[in-house]
Specification:
Layout (H helix, E strand, L loop, with lengths): L9 H9 L4 E9 L4 H8 L6 E5 L4 H8 L10 H18 L9 E11 L8 E9 L8 E9 L4 H21 L4 H7 L9 E9 L8 H10 L5 E4 L5 E2 L1 H5 L3 E6 L7 H18 L6 E8 H5 L6 H13 L3 E5 L4 H9 L6 E6 H7 L11 H9 L5 E5 L1 E2 L6 E2 L11 H9 L3 E3 L12 H9 L13 H8 L6 H4 L5
Parallel strand pairs: 1-2, 1-3, 9-10, 9-12, 10-11, 12-13, 13-16
Antiparallel strand pairs: 3-4, 4-5, 5-6, 7-8, 7-11, 14-15
Keywords: Receptor
Protein name: TonB-dependent receptor
């Protein structure tokens, strides 16, 4: 009979850390978060763990310790990392390693703002831990960004306290299993209480951790709806990237990315910029992959996921992984960050799915509610034509067929230029289909190389992406 391992409570975790005489560090909590260290004091044996606990609540006093912040912003990742590193340096300066052999030092910090009095802003913050696995090893860090969902300041503070304990415990006891560490962050916390929309692992303890895979876990586990990382593979905070920006996005499987994908993106973006007058400086361009697309018929294949994003990164694109199967949810998400222009490039088949009522049965307002969220903030669809492989007919906004009861609604959006055809596209790409390319790659056939962007074929072959096996292809020559 197998035994189910029971999750420890925050008090039990704090006590386990307190009882380890080699774990020793400081707590620095500014802003509204003052609850984490309380667990360690109450658990007992804290004198063996806590070197110092401080709350630099006043901005001027905080500035005197950690330095001033640009633009007077204190709830930032930069502020948090300053706190973590300052406190660890202070421990190293004041405590002799010779007098404290075996000690593994750490610093925990958070900087948060909770819900406002009017309850129009629920609050957010940063929390992190800097720690050693071994006294002779350098420091590693785990940093997270959280968004509060509860409607009460006290509840938010208690949730943050539990999260802090989970984070410290996970750093010391689950550093060899980052996925377990991420899951443990919600021990004694409901998903409805807190959202974690960014996580970053650095240092020798996580030398082989790919932060893109860790971001994927957040979406996969329902901890957030979307994560973003730049071409360098660095996790980005959505609020920082998208705030008051124009946004242009293209959704796809990108398995692999083809010349059609790039033509749709480039030609659609050109029209979007002409329509809006936006510039590269005030516009974010995103390639979106949904979790449902990654899952396919089963669980997520992480190698396949990395193959897709590695190719997009090589081409210099920023990737968003989302839990938004329906397009209106993606637009609704973007609209939480910006009131500026939003453009979506899509193919004819995707637009037909948007006008399929079966996707909106879960909404009380049905398709009208979905369209109210989809065509908001002057959101415009830039439609890429599709050549039917059976009939050879080229489909665009003028000849695609929607259900009879939606024809007038479709005409309304088209008449008001919320659906625009991409007219200047490359017709030579009309018979490129990613599924056919993938079949050829898997079976080591030729003829697909000129259907993907320059350099992509070489990358796929060199790294054995998407199931490509060089030794299979060599059989043709033996």
């Amino acid at each position: 009979m197998s035994l189910i391992k029971q999750k420890l409570t925050p008090k039990q975790k704090a006590l386990a850390i307190n009882l380890d005489s080699n774990i020793y560090g400081t707590f620095a909590e500014i802003g509204a978060g003052q609850e984490t260290v309380r667990h360690f004091f109450r658990a007992g044996g804290a004198s063996k763990t806590i070197a110092k606990a401080m709350s630099a609540y006043d901005k001027e006093f905080s500035d005197a310790i950690y330095g001033k912040e640009t633009q007077n912003r204190y709830v930032t990742q930069n502020r948090l990392r300053k706190m973590l590193r300052y406190e660890v340096a202070l421990i190293e300066e004041r405590l002799s390693r010779e007098d404290h052999p075996g000690r593994r030092f750490f610093s925990y910090a958070n900087t948060v703002t909770t819900i406002n009095f009017e309850k129009t802003f629920k609050g957010h913050g940063w929390a992190g831990v800097r720690f050693q696995r071994d006294e002779h090893e350098g420091y590693s860090e785990v940093v997270i960004h959280v968004k509060f969902k509860e409607n009460n300041t006290t509840l938010q503070q208690e949730t943050l306290g539990n999260l802090g304990v989970n984070l410290i415990y996970g750093a010391f006891f689950y550093n060899d299993n980052p996925r377990r560490l991420i899951e443990s962050l919600y021990d004694d916390i409901a998903l409805d209480d807190l959202e974690i929309d960014m996580i970053d692992f650095t240092g020798p303890a996580f030398e082989y951790v790919d932060n893109r895979l860790m971001s994927l876990q957040l979406v996969k586990n329902g901890m957030t709806d979307a994560v973003i990382f730049n071409p360098d593979g660095k996790n980005m905070l959505p609020a920082d990237m998208l705030y008051r920006k124009n946004i242009f996005a293209v959704r796809g499987s990108f398995r692999p990315v083809t010349k059609v994908n790039i033509d749709m993106f480039e030609s659609g973006l050109k029209v979007f910029r002409e329509d809006t007058g936006c510039t590269p400086e005030n516009t974010e361009v995103l390639f979106e992959i949904t979790i449902s697309n990654l899952k396919g018929d089963g669980d997520i294949d992480e190698r396949d996921f990395l193959d897709r994003v590695d190719v997009l990164a090589q081409l210099g694109y920023t990737v968003i992984i989302s839990n938004f199967s329906e397009y209106y949810r993606l637009i609704d998400y973007f609209s939480t960050f910006t009131g500026h222009k939003i453009g979506i490039a899509m193919g004819v088949n995707n637009l037909l799915m948007v006008f399929d009522e079966n996707y909106y049965k879960n909404l009380s307002g049905g398709i009208l509610e979905a369209f109210g969220k989809f065509f908001r903030n002057d959101m415009t669809v830039y439609l890429y034509p599709y050549k039917d492989p059976e009939t050879g007919e080229l489909l665009d906004s003028n000849n695609l067929k929607v259900n009879d009861n939606l024809k007038e609604l479709y005409k309304y959006f088209k008449h008001n230029k919320r659906i625009k055809d991409i007219k200047f596209y490359n017709p030579n790409y009309s018979e490129i289909y990613s599924r056919e390319i993938l079949k050829k790659i898997v079976h080591a056939e030729t003829g697909w190389e000129n259907q993907v962007p320059e350099g992509v074929a070489e990358m796929i072959k060199d790294k054995g992406m998407f199931g490509y096996k060089e030794e299979v292809s060599l059989r043709e020559f033996t």
